[in-house]
Amino acid sequence: EAGVTQFPSHSVIEKGQTVTLRCDPISGHDNLYWYRRVMGKEIKFLLHFVKESKQDESGMPNNRFLAERTGGTYSTLKVQPAELEDSGVYFCASSRIIKKKGTEAFFGQGTRLTVV
Amino acid sequence: QQQVKQSPQSLIVQKGGISIINCAYENTAFDYFPWYQQFPGKGPALLIAIRPDVSEKKEGRFTISFNKSAKQFSLHIMDSQPGDSATYFCAASGKDSSYKLIFGSGTRLLVRP
User: What pLDDT is stored for residue B95 in this prediction?
Assistant: First the structure.
């Protein structure tokens, strides 16, 4: 079974440009989460999809960030326009439908975004 | 506001020693407490997890101790090995927040040979 796949693994862009990150969750996982870790701090929640619907986007920093999940499969996270403080590692995680407490979330390897 | 506080920030242990990482949480609605292990260039991977109805869970050399009244939990790595050198994150989640993970700030563990 393939794991959670993210690409690109690295992206260096200039301030003001647009970047789109992609996440392919594990097949059959309806829950998809985006997280971000900036410069040695904690990994912070950005948003949560259940299938194609946004369940919780309380962690999205501002309206420069737009996440989509087409047909409940892969997801994209677009940053437009990028700012210096957007630099960090963006993680995607997926899990099965929650039927009991604490279903394991599987993480991708992350996309390291550097805005210069 | 950081809901999960983790310490220490970094830890150096000799091979064969015990590594201990501590976490404290604030939200009493949390009911799932996983620990993740992350190697450089990789994503976090679930190491071990506990629910608040038990005070301890052991898997091999890894043990979680949980103190519900103090709202604290800790990871103990027995007989630490150089291959355990990684960053460890504690986390907490609950049904009321769709089990999104609230992470601690991470602990970089180095096990010296």
Answer: 78
- When CB atoms are compared, the residue of B32, B89, B102 closest to A102 is B32
Answer yes or no: do A45 and B104 touch at CB < 8 A. no
Distance CA A71, CA B77 (A): 42
Q: Cβ of A20: how many Cβ atoms within 10 Å?
A: 13
**pLDDT for res A100:** 61
One-letter amino acid of A75: S
For residues A26 and A55, give the distance between their C-alpha atoms in angstroms, rounded to a whole number.
Answer: 19
Selected for mutation to probe chain A from B1, B99, B105, B107 (highest A CB count within 10 Å) is B99
Residue A98 confidence class, pLDDT cut points 50, 70, 90? low
DSSP A82-97: --GGG-EEEEEEEE--
Report CB contact under 8 Å: A102, B49: yes
Predicted pLDDT of residue A71: 86
Asked if residues A59 and A47 have their Cβ atoms less than 8 Å apart, the reply is yes
Residues with Cβ within 8 Å of residue B1, at least 6 apart in sequence? none
* Cβ contact, residue pair B36, A56, below 8 Å: no
